[in-house]
Amino acid sequence: MAGPVPDDFAIDPSTASAREVLPGVWRLRLPLPWEGISHANAYAIPDDDGVVLVDCGSAGHPTMEAALDRAMAEAGHRVEDVRLLVGTHVHTDHVGLARTVIERSGCTYRARPESGPIYDGHRDPDRVRRLRTDLARREGAPDLALADCGETAEEEQAIETTVEPHAGLDEGDRIDTGAGALHVLRAPGHAPSHVCLHQPDAGWLIAGDVLCSALVPWFDIGYSPDPYAEWQASLDRLDALPPATVVLPGHGRPIDGLTDVVALYRDGLRERLDAVVDAMDREPGGAWELAARAFGTAVDDPETIWAFDEVLAYAHHLRLTGRAERVADGDRRRYRLLPGGRDAAPRIAA
User: What CATH number corresponds to the domain at position 284?
Assistant: First the structure.
């Protein structure tokens, strides 16, 4: 993913932990080196044949593997006990250690195949850096931010290698575990590869990054038709599950019940889209300028990159729904709200 990376991917393995959050379901809290993102969750579900491990944390430094070992030991198991590794989505903080887990355990690895947002930058970083830098320049990023906009260090360092799944994950697939069968639900938006895993009998959901206790919008740009609409459609699907469903997120503690957290994401994403509409209505601009205007960052601040990627998703959605247009301004792009564009249009989901 574009953007600056930590100076050092080393973490303190002693801060890794495990807790049985539901009968037979262990939350593994795996520390991360990112500022503002302290950890990622993996979930270990043992049965008579071994352990089903959902996600496995980031790579980037040997201390990451040590943290996974510590958390697995607190759950009463070893990495070698894993019989099946399931990836909720192909992001570094969720499947960065996949190769290590597979090599040490001989397990089967299942994930969706839409791995381009991470794997492209690992396999061909020079090409991806050029594409990202060119896009940022055309969208109005200042020169001092271009290096960060083109950065591929996360993809090069935080996954060990581009591990292809042994088997995919399709809508309606069942994964047998010691805590019951998990039903696969496609849930793109945050990432095109994203799935959730629903256990209907006991009423819980491994949600990955589609839902967390705090709204943290991130979209993989350029890999699916309309990430904003896809995320909203995924929220609609999850909202159709029983309201009392316990949410096991990819970051943070378990959440009792779906209703409030779905509303947090549905309304929060819509409000951030509306902020971009307001910024565009005041004056046309490229995505970089609109990000600064909508979310209060400085136009010359390289950290605007995080809002910039988000605004690209909103601007694309507004164009697809006929609310805005993109116009050329020399070698730069600008987005302009069309007449009636302040009125919400029906979402378009892929």
Answer: 1.10.10
Q: Give tens-digit pLDDT for 264-319.
A: 999 999 999 999 999 999 999 999 999 999 998 888 777 789 899 999 999 999 99
- Tell me the per-residue pLDDT of 115-130, one tens digit each, with 9 for 90 and over: 999 999 999 999 999 9
Q: What is the pLDDT of residue 346?
A: 61
Tell which residue, 59, 60, 136, 53, has the closest CA to residue 88: 53
- 184 close to 170: Cβ distance less than 8 angstroms: yes
Q: Would you state the pLDDT for residue 304?
A: 87
Q: Are residues 191 and 320 in the same domain?
A: no
Q: Is residue 4 one of the residues assigned to a domain?
A: no
Question: Alpha-carbon dihedral of residues 338, 277, 187, 5, nearest 10 degrees?
Answer: 120
Whether 129 maps to a domain, the answer reads: no
Q: Are 169 and 114 in contact (CB under 8 A)?
A: no
Residue 346 and residue 290 in contact, taking contact as beta carbons nearer than 8 Å: no
CATH code at position 60:
3.60.15.10
Q: How many domains does the chain have?
A: 2
The percent of residues above 70 in pLDDT, for the chain, comes to 98
Q: What is the pLDDT of residue 222?
A: 93
Segment 93-149, tens digit of pLDDT: 999 999 999 999 999 999 999 999 999 999 999 999 999 999 999 999 999 999 999
Exposed (0-12), middle (13-18) or buried (19+): which is 325, by Cβ within 10 Å?
Answer: middle
Question: Terminal CA-to-CA distance of the chain, rounded, Å?
Answer: 22
Q: Say if residue 312 is in the same domain as residue 186.
A: no
Which residues constitute the domain of residue 105? 13-117+156-266
Dihedral of alpha carbons 316, 305, 31, 260, sign: negative
Indicate whether 196 belongs to any domain: yes
Distance CA 212, CA 232 (A): 15
CA distance 290 to 275: 9
Give pTM, 2 decimals. 0.96
Distance from C-alpha of 320 to C-alpha of 164, rounded to nearest angstrom: 32
Task: State the Cα–Cα distance between residues 224 and 228, nearest whole angstrom.
Answer: 10
Residues 216, 288, 135, 112: what is their CA dihedral angle, to the nearest 10 degrees?
10
